[in-house]
Structure formats: C-alpha cells, structure tokens
Amino acid sequence: MKTPPQPLPWKRPACLGLLGAVAAAGLAAESGTPAGPAFIDEQGRTHVTRVVPAPATISAEGRARLTNPPPSILSGGASVAEQRARIEARQARDAEAWLQRHPATIMHTTVAGVPVCIVTPRQADMVRGAAGWV
Predict the structure, then answer these.
(1) 3 state DSSP class of 74
(2) Which domain, by its residues, includes 118?
C-alpha cells in the first residue's frame, strides 16, 4: 500500500510562525534595533534590557543584593587573559570555602583540550537524604 504524501514542513502553521519570527529577528538585526529583551551588539557584547523586580518574599538583604549586584568580572574592558585570571582566582577562593564545608578530592585535568576539575566527595561525608545523596 502506498503512503499518502506528507505536507511540506513549511506549509505547517508552526513552521510558518517560526519563519516569521526568524524573519522579524533578521530585520531587527539589520535595522540595529533590539528584537527583544536581550541583544548582541556589533562588537559581540550581550545587552540584557529586561528588568525583573526582586520578589517581595525575600529578605531586605537579599533584595539589596539582587537589585545592586557586584560588578561582573566580564564587564570592565579587561582582556580575555585578565578575565580568565580573575575567574580562576575567584574559583580557587570559592573552592577553598566550599571544601571547608564539604570535604572532597579535586583532580585538575584536561578533557578534549579543555582544563577541568573533577570533584569527588569523600564517601564518609556522604549522607543518604530524601532527594538522594547529599
């Protein structure tokens, strides 16, 4: 028995909507106007323009931290090498603090040319919780 011909994908309503969205984004990019709450400029920088209010259910300290976040390592005009050095220093500082609370073994290695850290919790410190190993 011969199967009936299937409709072409671009004739389906979902595909037409997707094509319309892609076309609108392309026109917005050509005109230089942002197509949504985030966009990437000509220099490759990402701009997020959406503002989300801090929830009323969090503490005043938490709200202050959310409304006035510390400056990002990546914003400041530093070279990529300087950014990487700052990120590595922050990761080392954060790892030291976490290892005080959650003892583990950290092995530095490379996977497919990318430096990685393999973190293995100490078995004696693992506790079986309702959500699994904690």
Answers:
(1) coil
(2) 78-125
Q: How many structural domains compose the chain?
A: 1
- The answer to the question of residue 102 being in a domain is yes
Tell me if 58 is assigned to some domain: no
Name the β-bridge partners of 40. 46
Q: Considering the domain boundaries, does residue 31 fall inside one?
A: no
The Cα–Cα gap between 125 and 99 comes to 12
Q: How confident is the model over 25-69, as pLDDT tens digits?
A: 554 445 455 557 788 888 888 888 877 787 889 999 988 888 888
* pTM across the whole model: 0.42
Task: Give how far Cα 105 sits from Cα of 31, 56, 73, 130, Å.
Answer: 52, 39, 27, 25
61 falls within a domain: no
- Amino acid residing at 47: H
Higher pLDDT, 52 or 93: 93
